[in-house]
Amino acid sequence: MNHLLRTQAPIGDAGWTLLDEEARERLAPALAARKLVDFSGPRGWEHSATNLGRTSPLASSPSEGVSGLQRRVLPLVELRADFELSRAELRDADRGADDTDLAQLDQAAHRIAVAENVAVFHGWDGALTGIGEASPHEQPQLGDDTDRYPGRVAGAVERLLCSGITGPYGLALGREQYRRVVETAEHGGYPLLDHLGKILEGPIVWAPGVRGAVVVSLRGGDFLFESGQDLSIGYDSHDGEAVRLYLEESFSFHVATPEAAVALTP
User: Fold this and answer.
1) Which bin fits 3, alpha (ψ -120 to 50), beta or left (φ > 0)?
2) Closest Cα to residue 83, out of 234, 239, 250, 249?
C-alpha cells in the first residue's frame, strides 16, 4: 500500500493501529451492501477492471479476411473521503489517552460508507448500475404506515418467487425505515422486526443512504462486489497543527441477475 504514503505521516505505529481500529469499528455497522451481496477480493490497488466474459464486435480489421472482437470489462471506481486530525490529539494518544478526538475520522467513515451503499443499491451515474435501477420489477411504495410493511415485503418476496428467484432473502432499510421497524410492535406486542425476519428468512440491515428499502435474494451469484483496494487510511499532508488524511477504496459492482431484487420506494 505504498501509494497511501503512511510512512511519511507524523504518526507512529501505535497511532496507526488506533486509527485503523477506529475506522473498522465505525465502518462495520454502515457498510450494508457488503452484508447482502457477494464480496470478492480485495485484489489490490493495481487491479483496474472486472472481467465480464463478453465481447463487442470491432467495426474494422487490421487485414482482409480477419474479424476482431474486443473484450468487455467493468472498470473499478475509486471513492475517497478526506479528513484531518489534530497533532496534539495524536500525541496525547501516544501518551495513552483513551478519549482521543477522532470525530473527523468517524464522519469520513460514515460518508464513504453511505456513498458505497448508494452506489450499490441506487447506482452511480456514469460509473455503475445499482440494484434498484437494474431491477425490472414494479417498485411499490413502502410508505410511513408500518402496519403495511409486512404486506409490502411479503409482496416483494412473492414477486421474486414468481420470477424463479429462491431465498433466503435480505432486506436493506434506509435510516428512517429502519428506525420505524425497530421501534414498532404489532398488535399483540409482536416485534415488527421479528415478523419481517420470518417473511424473509434472512437478515434485516440498517443501510444509511438507501432510499426506502430493497429486498434481495441471498442465494448467491446475482450481485457481485469486487474490491480492488479495500477501505484504507492514507496520508495527504500535514503542518504544525493537523495531519490531513483520507479514507479510500476501489471497487466494481455488477448486477448479474436484475430480477433477483425488488426496490420499495420511501
Assistant:
1) alpha
2) 234
